[in-house]
Design goal:
Elements: E1 2-19, E2 25-44, E3 49-52, H1 63-75, E4 82-87, H2 98-114, H3 120-128, H4 134-139, E5 142-147, E6 151-155, E7 162-167, H5 174-183, H6 192-201, H7 204-209, E8 212-213, H8 221-236, E9 241-244, E10 251-255, H9 258-268, E11 274-278
Helix pairs in contact: 1-2, 2-3, 8-9
């Protein structure tokens, strides 16, 4: 039996440059893995593929199964019998890459179990066949992500700090958020280059000043009110800044002091579906 954590990701800065001929979108974003994480365990069984997790629809080939099939296709061998158990802590449909992180952990575990000599870049390429965020989640740490999200340039992680991650009680499906970007005029994107430069300098305050997400500009008024309430609450308790992560609706606040972060967390637990305290993490592989 093999087990690994599956750290969530946050977007410190996210810009969408436009649609691509292949149906995806050209992105520029700075991503950071965090200590809010699921736990993924794999063990061999005689045959088949079984995913143990709550609320799993029957008869659907899961991303985890697709990842295993892609991994063993590269090895040129049949998929062995596998049981994958997920202990979920990262909320779904939250802009935190929880599903991609689980797939990435499955791939890292399969590499550990069956092909430890596999180059990490090859593992990331396998992950891209399953989802655009998977290559970053395989790698972890902090990175400038371009293209679909697969062109990764390593960055130093955020300097030591505390993160409060809070999800309001609604979901924002990613395809719908991209449709909104097409049908409206979004605001100017965030300073992605400035964010990357701040991380390279190890300057937490400058990094906080560069936080931004173009998806915030296409929120509907009720969604915008809730996201803004969370951002204002985080800043009222001492956050250096706060931003919506991914396609939302989770909001992330950066704190220099744990005491301030804990106070904000206690306040938001009363109004948010999920609220958690986390820290930035370095590379995973």
């Amino acid at each position: 039996m093999y087990s690994q954590s599956a750290p969530a990701k946050i977007n410190l800065a996210l810009d969408v440059l436009g649609p691509r001929p292949d149906g995806y979108h050209e992105m520029r974003m700075v991503m950071q893995s965090v200590s809010l994480q699921d736990q993924v365990t794999i063990r061999e069984m005689p045959e088949g593929f079984r995913l143990l997790v709550m609320d799993l629809p029957e008869g659907v080939k899961t991303l985890e199964q697709r990842a295993a099939e892609a991994f063993f296709a590269v090895l040129g061998r049949p998929v062995p019998g596998l049981e994958v158990r997920l202990e979920k802590r990262t909320p779904a449909y939250a802009g935190l890459g929880g599903g991609s992180a689980d797939v990435a952990a499955v791939l890292r575990l399969l590499r550990e179990m069956y092909c430890p000599e596999m180059d990490p870049a090859e593992l990331e390429a396998i992950g891209l066949t399953v989802g655009s965020d998977v290559p970053f989640c395989v790698r972890g740490g902090a990175a400038l992500a371009e293209g679909r999200g697969e062109r990764l340039t390593d960055l130093p992680p955020l300097p030591p700090c505390w993160l409060v991650i809070a999800k309001p009680a609604f979901d924002l499906p990613t395809p719908e958020m991209f449709r909104r970007l097409h049908s409206r005029t979004p605001s100017d994107g965030p300073d992605v280059n400035g964010m990357a430069g701040a991380l390279r300098k190890g300057d937490l305050h400058s990094a906080a000043a560069c936080m931004g997400n173009v998806f915030e500009s296409v929120l509907e008024p009720p969604e915008q009110r809730e996201v803004l309430y969370i951002k204002n609450t985080l800043c009222r308790f001492g956050a250096l800044n706060a931003v919506m992560s991914g396609s939302g609706p989770s909001v992330v606040g950066i704190f220099a002091h744990k005491e301030d972060a804990s106070a904000a967390l206690d306040d938001l637990r009363n109004v948010c579906q999920t609220a958690a305290l986390a820290q930035p993490m370095g590379r995973l592989i």
